[in-house]
Amino acid sequence: MSAHEDNATLEFFNHCPTHLDSAEDYRRIALFLIFLFIFMVGLLENVLVIWVNWRRRHSANGVLFCILNVSLSDLIVIVILPFFMMEVTMGNVWLWGRFLCKVTHLVYKVNSYSSSFFLALMTAERYLSLTRPSFPAFFPVLGRRRWVLCGGLWVLSLFLALLENVHVDLLEWDEPGCYLIPEHNANEWFFTLGFLFLVFQFLGPAAVIITCNVLIARAVRTAPDVQGRRDVWLVHVYSLVFVLCWLPYHFVMFLMILDDISHSIFSCNTMEVLYFSLFVVHSLSLFHCVANPILYNFLSKSFRDNLVNTVLSQLPRDGAGNQLGAGTNAPNGGGGDPGKQRKLSNASTSQSDVGS
Q1: Nearest-CA neighbor of 231 among 348, 88, 96, 56?
Q2: What is the pLDDT of residues 221-234, one digit of tens each?
Q3: Looking at the predicted structure, is the pLDDT value of residue 100 above 90?
Q4: Whole-structure pTM over 0.85, yes or no?
Q5: pLDDT band for position 140 (50/70/90)?
Q6: What keywords were assigned to this record (predicted)?
Q7: Which of 125, 153, 204, 224 is in Cβ range 3.0-4.6 Å of 62 for a Cys bridge?
Q8: Measured between alpha carbons, how far is 233 from 226 in angstroms, rounded to an integer?
Q9: How far is it, in rounded angstroms, from Cα 297 to Cα 313?
């Protein structure tokens, strides 16, 4: 699916004569089914999340603003997924030309970075709202700071993605393929690009997410306004899901980079296992597009109430519908003491249970 995987294929066959034809059909079927599941479920989830939360974008605080950006990032990856599904089905043959070869890989890389950045910043924002309510928000509702910071994260993601994408190109040998092939100092480039992706996409965001979630769990345990102590475990699930989605991929990629540096490190049998594992863990990493909407939205009572209210608002209005719609909107947009609502919101462990 990725240029790294295509390059791993080339490197593998350069120094290992082992053939993988016997497992090829099973690999294609398994990966296609994984991609199909992620595409169908992820598309529905992220469209719903954006549809519901977009209606609250002007009054939402920084946490919900980050959720919108994460969902947008995941949705964009979902949209280009059919190109990679067909590529896998045809044995890494790319039929859509050089332009789409570069664009689809650029889009994938940009959104891999941006999704991690906004998840990390959202967790930090949540921690500050719980422990230091007077601290200025990263994404304030008013002013230019929200859009400057948001644009800065997307620009940083684009810059990091372009460092790799300039080396991605369409090569036509026996069959056309989309490959990451640096023209000069290939091993140095592979190591540098892999290191940058590891640090900026995984290690840095993971450190922020895990640290802040541990601190959030401690703060929630001692918060006098929290009624549901059983929800404390949810903040640890946030960290666990992020690590489970991305750690296997980065670990296998790290081993592949080691083999690029010195071909004598692993035997050909080991490389065969790594080669197959790389495709599997890369496809599994896309499960964050399915997990994020569930964790940060559908587990939230606030989001579920707004989802029901949004659906009801699209139905023909009558007396019963108006009464029901008003009732479901109360948790987020109803009357009452704003200070009390914010206090209860800050005590919640759900990332999207924020006052609107």
Answers
A1: 348
A2: 776 555 455 567 88
A3: yes
A4: no
A5: low
A6: Cell membrane, G-protein coupled receptor, Membrane, Receptor, Transducer, Transmembrane, Transmembrane helix
A7: 125
A8: 13
A9: 19
